[in-house]
Amino acid sequence: MSDLFNYEHVPHPYRDGYSVLPRLRKIPREEIFRYEPSHFQRCLTEKKLARESQIFEVEQRLNDNLREAVRVFLLQEYPIPLNPAASLGEVVEQMQEDVVIHALEGEDDWMAYGHVCLPSSWRPEEKIGQHLRSLHTPIPGINLNNSSQLVETMVHHGPFERFIWSVVFDDRLNFHPDIPKTPFDVNKPTVYVKVERQVTVGFPEQFGGLFLLSESLLNEDEIDRPALANSIRKMNDAELEYKGLIDCAAELVNWLECT
Length: 259
Hints:
The chain is 31% helix and 20% strand. It has nine helices and seven strands, in the order βαβααββαααβββααα.
């Protein structure tokens, strides 16, 4: 079993009482990265495959100081040695995490860079340049009236961690929207919980923040079935639609509770 959730005080993605909106936790700098050798290799393999078939690197108004600060930070702080590389993208290709950089200028904020090979149902080329408010608009129940304040907190404080989860029926980490998803089949159920660990790191002197996105799968033996069923049962229709479970929630809950 992955040790992803074995750290003290780490919230379990669906056991701690929320269904859609994730909780933020401030973490010490030594917990920014988590390295598991077998999972690391799987991520690198799937990232390489994704780069052959989809747009993964995007950029808009990324200033050179912020780019260089992030590149140096990754080379110096990553838990295993990375080969020095002149470009930020070449550094990220050696990591299990995907990377997004958000920039802040006065009251204006925007996604300035993305190197995202394993997205969760979104296209980097459609999100580049957008405000934080626009990036998260589809999430039901989220209040982004003070989105610029949230970006400022990310840039000047932290690092912060949160987990986002979804139920999937494919044994893969890449859920780019161009790849068809397998629907739930009650006669041949194969169920996973995909967990995205998001960590933010601020670069106040360069007016930006770094998002580290790391994908993991919990298999059927690792899923807490009663807790997952309870979380799904609590969702309203908007939340079920957002999670992609609107058409199978009842059957899925029944399967979780009866097997």
